[in-house]
């Protein structure tokens, strides 16, 4: 299976979450931004394996985002757009797009085309073991399943993203700001999700042994 770090730049929140959900189900780690300026900044900061880029975005549109990125990076770019004229498609390819997907699109086909580009460009790694284990806690990013010993734990997508992020680096202390990068709106929202996670993975949520608070800093998964 191909596994990659993918940046999705899409101003429509529902559409962005749909793309994120399908890409994560395919085994990728995904970060979402909602405007062109953030797309440029995050590409420079994260150096993703692939960028899924909407054309119509606030602050900086997708075409200008691609122009800026192509002066400094050859990251594969998949354009998502409602523009489907031949001139629009040719402009996208002339500026360096690797693929051009018109809306509305079928998410599974989008995922398959992303997978093909990643293999062709050698930007991602092949992996057959993406399961994360922390003590008796098992997190499967491909199946989006969490087990404690043999018991399946039901998590929301937001709870799963938080737990998987921390399980990838157990014992690391994550600040609320670092956890906010995954799409949470406020620091208080992170705290609420942590409280709900403790109810599901701790034997006694009032005395957590797995999901620990590091006072004044944030949280870690022990």
Automatic annotation (TrEMBL):
Write out the entry's keywords from A to Z: DNA-binding, Phosphoprotein, Transcription, Transcription regulation, Two-component regulatory system
UniProt xrefs under SMART domains: REC, Trans_reg_C
Occurrences of domain OmpR/PhoB-type (ranges)? 129-222
Question: What GO molecular-function term can you cite, just one?
Answer: DNA binding
The protein's matches in CDD domains, at most eight in alphabetical order, are given as: REC_OmpR, trans_reg_C
Modified positions (4-aspartylphosphate) are 54
Q: What range(s) does the Response regulatory domain occupy?
A: 5-118
Q: What is this protein called?
A: DNA-binding response OmpR family regulator
The answer, when asked if Transcription regulation is one of the entry's keywords, is yes
Tell me which PROSITE patterns the record gives: OMPR_PHOB (PS51755), RESPONSE_REGULATORY (PS50110)
- Which sections of the sequence are annotated for DNA binding? 129-222
Q: Please name the Pfam families in this protein's record.
A: Response_reg, Trans_reg_C
| Keyword flag tRNA-binding | no
| InterPro entries the record matches | CheY-like_superfamily, OmpR/PhoB-type_DNA-bd, Sig_transdc_resp-reg_receiver, WalR-like, WH-like_DNA-bd_sf
